[in-house]
Design brief:
The complex is a heterodimer of chains A (111) and B (116). Chain A contains no helices and eleven strands. Chain A is mainly β and 111 residues long. In chain A, strands 2, 4, 5, 9, 10 and 11 form a six-stranded mixed β-sheet that branches. With 116 residues, chain B is mainly β. In chain B, a hairpin with a 6-residue loop joins β7 and β8. Classes of the chains: A mainly beta (111), B mainly beta (116).
Chain lengths: 111, 116
């Protein structure tokens, strides 16, 4: 079955440092989505990428979808304490009828 | 605009009891997904339903677990004869699924199930 791996599992950064999380799929994805879950909260949709090599930006967040559509990354520039939370990628491939979520990267930002 | 509503927020059950978790999707959404999350772990897919139909239940244990999404009313995730290992956060999400492009999921606040 489809597997989506995400690294690192945990990341601690000083406020102002950059942060990147990586997502890799065992199969080619038709699209990939990113979600953020604050501590004690629920996942909230951030963005969806569909095209090979696509890059999208949301303020300090940059999302990339690999050329082969099997990997993706989320990069945060100059982290802030409000960026704290767990970031999940979720991919859809082949005949799958539902998203497969990565294991998430838990980001801690130290003031 | 009401989002995805889940209740109860917290549910405590003793071993052997039944747990019923409810989820009302966003207005206009006819697709419901249930996910389970253990502390500091990812979201594990359990079941995907449309109104009156189970589309994919490949992530749901065949024993003790069932789900429904009736024509009227909320979706229900039912766990019979709960065991301590069922303790987890259960999230419901809804979407409007159109064509082959998966729409984004809107999650509820989750139900934290604790089995004593």
């Amino acid at each position: 079955g489809q597997q989506v791996m995400q690294i690192p599992q945990y990341q601690h950064v000083q406020e102002g440092e950059d942060f990147t999380t990586y997502c890799n799929s065992s199969t080619t994805l038709s699209n990939i989505q990113w979600y953020k879950q604050r501590p004690g909260g629920h996942p909230v949709f951030l963005i969806q990428l569909v095209k090979s090599g696509e890059v999208k930006k949301q303020k300090r967040l940059t999302f990339q979808f690999g050329e082969a559509k099997k990997n993706s990354s989320l990069h945060i520039t100059a982290t802030q304490t409000t960026d704290v939370g767990t970031y999940f990628c979720a991919g859809l491939s082949g005949s799958a009828r539902q998203l497969t979520f990565g294991s998430g990267t838990q980001l801690t930002v130290l003031p | 605009n009401a989002g995805v509503m889940q209740n109860p927020r917290h549910l405590v059950r003793r071993r052997g009891q039944e747990a019923r978790l409810r989820c009302s999707p966003m207005k206009g959404h006819s697709h419901v997904y249930w996910y389970r999350q253990l502390p500091e772990e990812g979201l594990k897919f359990m079941v995907y339903l449309q109104k009156e139909n189970i589309i994919d239940e490949s992530g749901m244990p065949k024993e003790r677990f069932s789900a429904e999404f009736p024509k009227e009313g909320p979706s229900i995730l039912r766990i019979q004869q709960v065991v301590r290992g069922d303790s987890a956060a259960y999230f419901c999400a809804s979407s409007t699924f159109q064509g082959n492009t998966n729409e984004k999921l809107f999650f509820g606040s989750g139900t934290q199930l604790s089995v004593l």
